Amino acid sequence: MSYTRNSGFLSLVMLVVCAFSAIAQEISKDTVKPVSAAPNMRQKIDGVIATIGDYNILDSDIDKAFLEMTSQGNSIKDFSRCQMLGKLMEEKLYAHQAIQDSIVVTDEEVKSKMEEQLSYMIEQLGSMDKVIKYFKKSTEEDFRTDLFEIIKMNKLTSAMQKKIVDEVEITPEEVRTFFKKIPEADLPFFGAELEVSQIVVQPKVSDADKQKVIDRLKEFKSEVLAGSSFSTKAVLYSQDPGSSSSGGYYKMNKKTPFVKEFKDVAFSLGEGEISDPFETDFGFHIIYVEKIRGQEIELRHILLVPTVTDQSLKEAKERILQIKKKIEDKSISFADAARAESDEKETKANGGVLINPKTQDTHFDLTKMDPAFYSQVSNLKEGEISMPMIDTDQSGKKKYKIVMVTNRINEHTADYGKDYLKIKDLALKEKQINAIAKWSEEKIKETYVKINGEYRDCAFTNNWLKK
Fold first, then answer.
1. Is 30's pLDDT higher than 50?
2. Looking at residues 208-226, what average pLDDT do you find?
3. Is 115 exposed, middle or buried, given 0-12, 13-18 or 19+ CB atoms closer than 10 A?
4. What span, in angstroms and rounded, lies between the C-alpha atoms of 302 and 247?
5. Residue ranges with strand state E in 147-192
6. What angle do CA 39, 41, 46 make, to 5 degrees?
7. Rounded alpha-carbon distances, angstroms, from residue 386 to 345, 378, 402, 405, 409
8. Left (φ > 0), alpha (ψ -120 to 50) or beta: where does 405 sit?
9. Does 142 have pLDDT greater than 60?
10. pLDDT tens digits, 64-115
C-alpha cells in the first residue's frame, strides 16, 4: 500500500474522528466524561466548552483537531487551544447559518458521499466489522447514523462558505484602486513564467479493438438489467480514475463541464435507464441514470479504453516527427501545424496554445508547474521544439506530443498591464476575505453564542464574547 493511500486514509479517519463528537448535540452542558488527551497534552474532564446556535463544542474536540493537524504533517507549535477553539467555532457558525439560510443538502447526496467514504474505509481496513471496531462503534447502524450527520454538517459548512465567496464580484476599477494603493516597495514579485504550445498525435485504434470494448460494455448492460450491480461493475472495471472508486457516480446539470457527447447521452435518458455504448475522446462509456431532480441528474458510468497496439504507437511517432520536420524546415508555422494536424480539440483551434487550468491564462509559473510538465519544458529555449514525447493519461490512454516554448517571461515586479489577471485575483481574494470578516461579525451578533470556563479568557480574533 503506497504512502499516498495511507496518508489519505489517515486524513479521512481524523476528519471522521474529529466530527463524531461534534454531532452529539443532545449532550447536556453539565455532562462530563473522562477522555484520552492527544499526545503531549494533559488529561482533562470532557464537557461542552462552547455553544454556537444549535451546535456544541467539547473540550476533547480541540485535542482531536490538533491530532488532525499533526496527522497531515502540520506544526501545532505556535497554535494555541484558544486559536483552535476559534477555528471550530467558525466552522459551527457556518453550518448553523446554512440552516438558517435554508441551504439544502439532500439526504441522497449525503448518502452518496457516505457510501463513497465507506467503500474507501473498507478497502483500507478490510471489512465493515473492522471499520466499526476502528471507530469504536457498537453497531453498523450507529456508525452509519453518525457518519451521515458528520458528512451533512461538513456539506452545510462548505455550502455556506461558497455562498459568501460566490456573491463577491470585483470591477476593473476596484482592481486598479487595489493596485494603486500598494506601496511601490511592497508590490508583489512574480516568478519566471512560460507560455507553451503543443501538437498532439493520438495513435489510431483498430475497429476490431473498438468492437471488443463495445461488446464488453454491452455485456455489462445486459448483466445489470438481469440484476447485477452497476456500481460494483464500475468499481471493478471502469477506467475513469475520477469516479471508479465511488461506483462511477457523478452529479451534473447542463452547465457541468463534461464533454458534449457525454452530456447529450446523459440528458437523453430517463430515470433508471442505461445507455448503449457510446464514444468520447476519453474512450467508450455506458451511463446509468439513478435520479432526475429538475435540471440535475445523478448518474453512474463505466469507461473502457480500447487497447493501442505497438504498431499504432509507432505510426503516431512517425507522423509527429514529420510534423516537427515541416515546422523546422519553415514550410509551416507551429501554430498553423497545430490547427491542421493536432488531434487535441482543446488546443487545435488556437494554434496549440496551452491554457493554465489554475489561472485560466496562458502563463505557467515555473515554481508551481506540475513536475512532469516542468521536466518536459523547463530546458527548452524560446522557439525550440521538443523531441516527440509519449504521454499517458490517468485512464491509460497514450498519445505523442511535441511542445514549444513560445514566450519566456523572467521574474519581475508586478506590472498592471502585463499581470492584470494575477492582480485581479489578488484584489478579489482581499475583497472575499473582507466579505467573510464582515459576514462573521454580523452573524455572531445575531447568533446565540456561549463560551464556558477558562475559555472565556481567550483573546479571540472574532468577537465571540460580544464585548
1. no
2. 96
3. middle
4. 9
5. 189-190
6. 110
7. 21, 11, 6, 9, 19
8. beta
9. yes
10. 778 767 755 677 888 899 999 999 999 899 999 998 998 888 888 888 888 8
Question: Higher pLDDT residue, 278 or 206?
Answer: 278
406 in Cβ contact with 383 (< 8 Å)? yes
Q: What are the start-end ranges of the H helices in 290-419?
A: 310-328, 334-341, 345-348, 371-377
Cell of 177: 484602486
Listing DSSP states for 203-268 in one string gives PP--HHHHHHHHHHHHHHHHHHHTT--HHHHHHHH---TTTGGGTTEEEE-TTS---HHHHHHHTT
Q: Which amino acid is at 378?
A: S
**Each residue's pLDDT tens digit, 324-382:** 999 999 999 999 999 999 999 889 999 999 998 888 888 888 888 888 888 888 889 99
- The CA distance from 313 to 54, in Å, is 61
Q: What is the DSSP letter of 37?
A: P
Cβ pair 282, 304 in contact under 8 A: no
Of 155, 141, 161, the residue nearest 15 (C-alpha): 155
pLDDT at 229: 94
Q: Which of 134-138, 289-293, 333-337 has the lowest mean pLDDT?
A: 134-138
Answer whether 234's CB lies under 8 Å from 300's CB.
Answer: yes
Please, is 323 exposed, middle or buried when counting C-beta atoms within 10 Å of its C-beta (0-12, 13-18, 19+)?
buried
Write b or e for each residue in 1-21: b if 16 or more Cβ atoms lie within 10 A of its Cβ, otherwise e. Answer: eeeeeeeebeeebbbbbbbbb
Cell of 196: 507553451
- Give Cα 401 to chain centroid, integer Å: 27
Quote the crossing angle between the two packed helices 81-100 and 420-446, to the nearest 10°: 80
Class of residue 175 by CB neighbours under 10 A (exposed 0-12, middle 13-18, buried 19+): buried
**Which residue, among 407, 208, 237, 205, has the nearest Cα to 312 in the 3D structure?**
205
Q: Residue 269 carries which DSSP code?
A: S
369 contacts 358 by C-beta, under 8 angstroms: no
Mean pLDDT on 236-262: 91
Q: Which residues of 74-93 are buried (b: 16+ CB within 10 A; e: fewer)?
A: eebeeeebbbbbbebbbbbb
Report which residue type is found at 74: N
Q: How far apart are CA 7 and CA 133, in angstroms?
A: 20
